[in-house]
Amino acid sequence: MEHSKKVQHLFWRAGFGLKPNEFKVKSRFKIPQLVDSLIRQAKSDSKISEKNIRLFSEADRREMSKMERKELRRKGKKLTLQVNAEWVSKMARSGNSAFLEKMTLFWHGHFASETKLPHFATQQLNIFRKYGLGNFRDLVLAVSRDASMIFYLNNKQNKKQSPNENYARELMELFTIGRGNYSEQDIKEAARAFTGWTANFRGQFEFREKWHDYGSKTFMGKTGNFNGEDIVDILLERKETARFIAAKVYRYFVNENINSNHINELADVFYNSNYNIEKLMRAVFESNWFYDSENVGSKIKSPVELIVGVMRTFSVKFNDPLAVVFLQKALGQVLFRPPNVAGWPGGKTWLDNATLMIRLNLVNYLFQATDMDLKVKEEFEAQMRNNRVAKIKAQVNPQMLVDLFKNKKQGEQIESMSEYLLQTQYPINTKLIEKYIIGKSPSDKIKLTALRLMSLPEYQLC
Distance between CA 167 and CA 116 in Å, rounded? Predict the structure, then answer.
């Protein structure tokens, strides 16, 4: 495989594709250098600042009128949508730090929870940013103490008198060791260990000693006065956990069709490094098999990957920043609103008759700065004022793309642009594309070529 194609593959999987002005520059470096740079930048980026909302104690909330609580929820939802839009904008602006945003997006889907309060949303994102390339134990414990997760999986109701098993179950089934490696009794005992782990509406973790079950527990063959930390440690002692996470990483960053040999290789690295996430990701991106042809262009872009990739290519700026939220909804992936605790299933589930048409026409809509009618599902229509459609207006700047390809002849230009825009192993029929490129100036032809190429089904893959 050509080196430039490997670089493109790396930056689509470890980020959201290369901007036109990055394409030539990055292609000059060797893969290990690029991986080092991606990880170094990811570890040095800053936190996301919290959205300000007036916070109340639970006692204050109980004294509020119904209308006051409703207004507080409305403001919270609006600010959470702003956190969503600002995160997408950050993904689109990022250079080497795109890997941090991609890892944050991965953990956002792995530890899926619905978040309706803006400070909960930013706190959770900052957990993923702080621990997302660190030690997996630290990440799991931080998530276990995260207000979003505690509220979403009802650990506020987990008390020794009546243990709530929701978090304990999902911790094992979805977050660590995977189904088939634990028993129903293990769930009950783990739930007892997490009793008293709660949080307040300010997003602060609280341990309620009076709610905690200090009795002896037997979990996965071990007996002791276990708390939540002990449960996590016992889960990590089992190599099945390393393999489960390695497989999840492989499906997301490499290929949905797993290769057992590669999974075993990654699980060994992860387990023997004491669950060092950075070493796991290095093992992925520095392996030879990551760049095999079967793994290039094999993944259907998630809605967020698609939107951010287009924004990066054309320096898109939406007139209304919240337009990206409507696009997410129309395409089936709203950040902070996963379909359930298992997150977004991905793959072919991203595509249906409605979303495919929007995907194929997205660039054309944005490029022509036209109004785009997006039909969305009932639960979101209330936020669009009585079932109105969302009008998506944006400023599009193709100049970086023009500068990259303006010195090439048309036939060569189409071929070079397809290599930049499309992650496919199959050659594009440049003659067919050329028939539809009618422009008065070289820059017009580049713009029209981009529109044609990005409207192809192949553009939906990375």
Answer: 19
**297-354 confidence digits (pLDDT tens):** 999 999 999 999 999 999 999 999 999 999 999 999 999 999 999 999 999 999 998 8
Domain range summary for the chain, segments of one domain joined by +: 303-395, 399-460
* d(C-alpha 398, C-alpha 178), whole Å: 45
User: How many CB atoms sit inside 10 A of residue 447's CB?
Assistant: 19
Amino acid at 411: G
Q: Using an 8 Å Cβ cutoff, are 367 and 314 in contact?
A: yes
Q: For the chain, what is the total number of helices (H) and then of strands (E)?
A: 23, 6
Predicted TM-score (pTM) above 0.85: yes
In three-state secondary structure terms, 229 is helix
CA distance 276 to 205: 25
302, 351 contact by CB (below 8 A): no
Selection from 162, 143, 169, 148 nearest residue 211 by Cα: 162
* Tokens representing residue 229 in the block: 């930390």
**Cα angle at 287 between 281 and 288, to 5 degrees?**
155
CA 15, CA 102: separation in Å to the nearest integer? 5
